[in-house]
Amino acid sequence: MATKHEQILQYIETLKVGNKISVRQIAKELNVSEGTAYRAIKEAENQGLVSTIERVGTIRIERKQKENFENLTFAEIVSIVDGQVLGGRQGLYKTLNKFVIGAMKLDAMMRYTEKDSLLIIGNRVEAHQLALKEGAAVLITGGFDTDDVTKKIADEKELPIISTSYDTFTVAAMINRAIYDQLIKKEIVLVGDIYTNVEDTFYISLKDHLNKWYQWKEETTHSRYPVVDDKKRVVGMITSKDVIGKDENLLVEKVMTRNPMTVKKETSLAYAAHMMIWEGIEIMPVVNNQQVLEGLISRQDVLKALQHIQKQPQVGETIDDIVSNQFELVTSHGQDYTYQTTVTPQMTNQLGTLSYGVFVSFITEAATRAVRQQKKGDLVVENISVYYIKPVQLETVLDIKPKIIELGRKSVKIDIEAYHEKNIVGKAMLMAQLMD
């Protein structure tokens, strides 16, 4: 039977997109405490089922598919520009396909304004009304209001009309930045993208006997299974090490390994890979917030997915991407390598010098490339110690020199030095696990 928390989430999923919900309403309708209702609504927000907007409330929205991440909802626009909704609240769940800056004559503006777009404009009431009639939402800049007729049209068309105190071009830059951030998020592969669903997963009950393990092993050839209680919550793992030499009639709970490591569908694949390699784990249960089993991921699946990601073109560019693209191998003698890079504006801090975080990215990139040159695969960083760093100004050309001190079958220790015109400007030590 579903828990109260799960019942609330199921109820929220059945609501029509655009419906407004509240803690008090949920608590009253489902006969639960307000605390339980609040926690479930927060979980629904994490899952992308609802969105909470200041001065508006919480509304049911359409859950985004990963391929549509770059399309922002109007509710998200309100949050980005710290806006106030003047009308058309029922349409906040809708997504915009493009935005148009209304810095032109009315007839020219209307040629570009189409259904599901967003017109960003100042205090021009006629343009507000025409845009709404074309099926576009309106974002009024400069903190201006609009007239009651326009608000009525917005309510009838269920298209938001939003006001913000920012100017037109600041707003456009903010929305562009948000779309760009969404594109980067779109590329981050999560456990939920590759895991095996619980319906296709073999698991063992807490009250089963060890002969269940032998039955599953014969059927699947696998030797590791999650152990769940009567509410399907993960309470342990059972492997061949736990079973060998034990009586088949023993209860599973007597021999299982308790408190196993788990991940959620929202966990990034890179983090899961790190944990599995660090702890030497072959499979890991995927659970929800209540520790209920939702599926499994295996180390093999994770490594295959990471290899696949490395071959994909990227749309959004992170600092690490910029660092990687700038790196160039200039000399190579045995195990001695020199990489060259230039400090660009994105790599600087508020003082205009190389930021500490980007310097760490340089260290990681140099170490990763040096290990790959030795045909040892990729690495998972355990520890980075920066011993020394000098201010490095914009457009400085740096020589990064990684030196492999220890290289074992599973781990590596690398000393990295950074030079500018033969003067040392940074020094660090990196230790990592190898991922073949």
TrEMBL record:
A Pfam family matched in the record:
CBS
One GO term in the molecular function aspect is: DNA-binding transcription factor activity
Q: Where is the CBS domain?
A: 190-253, 256-314
Q: Which InterPro entries does this one have?
A: CBS_dom, CBS_dom_sf, Diverse_CBS-Domain, DRTGG, HotDog_dom_sf, Ser_kin/Pase_Hpr-like_N_sf, Thioestr_dom, Tscrpt_reg_HTH_GntR
Q: Which CDD domains match?
A: CBS_pair_DRTGG_assoc, hot_dog
Q: Which UniProt keywords apply?
A: CBS domain, DNA-binding, Transcription, Transcription regulation
Gene3D superfamilies according to UniProt: CBS-domain, Hotdog Thioesterase, HprK N-terminal domain-like, Winged helix-like DNA-binding domain superfamily/Winged helix DNA-binding domain
Checking PANTHER family in the record gives:
CBS DOMAIN-CONTAINING PROTEIN (PTHR43080:SF2), CBS DOMAIN-CONTAINING PROTEIN CBSX3, MITOCHONDRIAL (PTHR43080)
Q: What is this protein called?
A: Putative transcriptional regulator
